[in-house]
Write a structure and sequence with these properties.
By secondary structure, the protein is α/β, with parallel strands linked by helices. Among the domains are: about 125-295, Rossmann fold, CATH 3.40.50; about 385-455, no CATH class. The protein is about 25% helix and about 20% strand. The protein contains 13 helices and 17 strands. The strands form four sheets. A six-stranded mixed sheet has the order 1-14-13-17-15-16. The longest helix is centred in the last third of the chain and has 19 residues, at about 435-455. The two termini are about 45 Å apart. The structure holds iron/sulfur cluster (SF4) (2 copies).
């Protein structure tokens, strides 16, 4: 296959690169979402891209579910108490990506008088700025993993010409099935949440993109759009469901935009630049909860899976639930676990501390055994070109890796390093098991350091 070959598929898909890793979704795809509420939660204050929030509560304070407990100074996003209880401590704790962060720990107390977040009358006719305010107040971020503040993504620049909302139901990472279960079990909330976003950004076209390995979800979404009478409710917004080829990374924004609209996001650009806004299905639900129920993001659904956990599950847990509590709730380890990942196996992060807790961006928790993990040491590049074929951005990770090995990270821009979104297709396809994503990360970090120095 040549570098620039266009893949032939009966279903819509992106044109360049991509891989077909083993799916492993059978472990959890038929397991309905269960709710698990631990007795303690620990909430790191850095939960979204940008500045961290500052705690507004101190040790021994009583908090109710939904109370604001931290906020970003200067009008940024707030964090809310995921459970009612007493603040046990505000101190440094582990963080899944930052290693350490200020963390608010709450011990659960009686839930009597907990807010129910009932439907607010007149929510459908709110003005756009009010809808946006509610989304901001609720602390909604991209729940697909990016954790970008949603209100900022929905406040379009004045000159933006956006005509399409893409709702991302691709969930292309192996093992993860939480979005699939949300689409099956909470399809009404996904559809209404998508409508809320379409109203805010003022588009007539809303396309829900779902991979072909999740056909039941696509059928459920279509049925729900018809059952809710969306066309009659608001003829100005046309909602449709499009099934795409199952190919990783179908769920990445640029690839999904091309699959669903045929538009190519330019180098260094955003979907916005080709008239599209992309939101994940769980984020659509969070937007509806915020606008309709004034419910903040205090919980999320995630997949707990891998051969290393006794009872894999799709769980709804309060933000701040620890990995250790989830392991106990899922029956403990099953054999030797050699890797614990936050997120999927392609883009997830390894964690080493069981006290790390679920954040708003945590879509999966994987317990992998040796059989599921590549622990081989890596070998020299054999110039096979597999990584070039696999890269959906047309980059040259092989060349970047060679430059990193001779300590020349600041000479790698020519190979496209700044366009890399760390999807992992290159590492996955390399027969020499070269950690190509890590090489890309090293090069990107060197450029970031250089930019900081130049300021
Ligand atoms: S991780 Fe980066 S270099 Fe590797 S395939 Fe993905 S975009 Fe390309
Ligand atoms: S896939 Fe691995 S061995 Fe092949 S060209 Fe890329 S880096 Fe080299």
């Amino acid at each position: 296959m040549s570098l620039f070959s266009w893949h032939k598929s009966a279903l819509p898909t992106f044109s360049r690169g991509g891989v077909h890793p083993e799916e492993h979704k059978g472990l959890t795809e038929n397991l309905p979402i269960e709710t698990f509420i631990p007795t303690t939660v620990s909430i790191p204050v850095s939960q979204s891209l940008g500045a961290p929030a500052e705690p507004l509560v101190a040790k021994a304070a009583m908090v109710k579910r939904g109370d604001v407990i931290a906020t970003v100074p200067g009008g940024g996003l707030s964090l809310h108490a995921p459970i009612s209880g007493i603040v046990k401590s505000v101190q440094t704790g582990p963080h899944p990506t930052l290693v350490h962060d200020t963390t608010i720990t709450i011990l659960a107390k009686s839930a009597e008088g907990d807010p129910e977040f009932a439907e607010q009358p007149g929510w459908q006719t709110l003005a756009i700025p009010q809808m946006l305010d509610r989304i901001k107040e609720a602390g909604v971020v991209g729940l697909g993993g990016a954790a970008f503040p949603t209100y900022r993504k929905l406040m379009l620049p004045k000159d933006a010409k956006v005509d399409t909302l893409v709702i991302n139901g691709s969930e292309c990472e192996p093992y993860l099935t939480c979005d699939y279960r949300v689409m099956l079990e909470e399809s009404e909330r996904v559809v209404l949440g998508s409508w809320v976003i379409a109203k805010i950004i003022g588009v007539k076209n809303c396309v829900i993109g779902i991979e072909s390995n999740k056909q039941p979800a696509a059928e459920q979404m279509r049925k729900t759009i018809a059952a809710l009478g969306m066309e009659a409710m608001d003829p100005a917004v046309k909602m449709s469901v499009v099934v795409t080829e199952t190919k990783y990374p179908q769920g990445s924004e640029k690839q999904l935009v091309q699959s669903l609209t045929g538009r190519l996001v330019p180098k260094g650009g955003l979907p916005l630049h080709v008239g599209v806004v992309v939101q994940n299905v769980a984020t659509a639900v969070a937007c509806l909860d915020a606008v309709r129920n004034r419910k903040p993001v205090i919980e999320r659904v995630l997949t707990v899976s891998g051969a290393g956990i006794k009872n894999p599950k799709n769980l709804r847990v309060p933000i701040g639930t620890s990995v250790e509590d989830i392991i106990l709730h899922c029956g403990g380890y099953n054999g030797d676990v050699v890797k614990i990942l936050f997120g999927g196996p392609m883009m997830g992060r390894t964690i080493a501390d069981l006290d790390v807790s679920v954040t708003k961006g945590t879509s999966g928790l994987l317990f992998l055994t040796e059989a599921e993990t590549n622990l081989n040491s890596y070998q020299p590049c054999i110039s096979c070109g597999e990584c070039l074929d696999a890269c959906p951005m047309g980059l040259e990770p092989n060349r970047v890796s060679q430059y990193i090995e001779v300590n020349r990270p600041l000479e790698t821009e020519q190979f496209g390093v700044k366009e890399c979104f760390e999807c992992g297709c290159c590492s996955y396809s390399c027969p020499s098991h070269r950690p190509l994503v890590q090489f890309m990360q090293v090069a990107k970090a060197a450029y970031r350091r250089q930019e900081r120095k130049a300021k």
